[in-house]
Amino acid sequence: MALSYAVRRQLLEASLPEATEVRLELQDYLAGTGMTPPDFARRINYARETVYQFLNGHYSRISSNDGLIRTAIRDFIAAHPIATPVISSGKLYETENARLL
Which segments of the chain does DSSP mark as H helices, in order? Predict the structure, then answer.
């Protein structure tokens, strides 16, 4: 049974607050890692157009339920957090190669 566009949109609006939260979380993650949406889509096994539609808030054109993509996004971000740079507290020694340069 196919659902009309209006019915799909209505079903997605029920999850709108959480979808907006995940969308913002994904935008922050992409900005923090420098990863592109197509690369992120490949890593979560979704088409790049699907991720673009989700980021732009037009996922209702694809599906009536965005629960699976929200879960995939959150699972990936939880499994691959943005690491803070490690600051060395030790002493650096000049090597022969560094002296040659």
Answer: 5-13, 16-33, 37-43, 48-55, 67-79, 96-100
pLDDT in tens, 9-38: 676 666 556 888 999 999 999 999 999 999
36: domain range? 5-100
Segments in the chain below pLDDT 70:
1-3, 9, 11-17, 85, 101
Q: Identify whether the C-beta of residue 27 lies closer than 8 Å to the C-beta of residue 37.
A: no
pTM: 0.69
Asked if 22 and 74 touch (Cβ cutoff 8 Å), the reply is yes
Q: Tokens representing 14?
A: 């029920």
- Give the number of domains in the chain: 1
Query: Is 46:72 a contact under the CB 8 Å cutoff?
Result: yes
For residue 12, the model assigns a pLDDT of 63
Structure tokens belonging to residue 35:
């990863």
Please give the single-letter amino acid code of residue 50: T
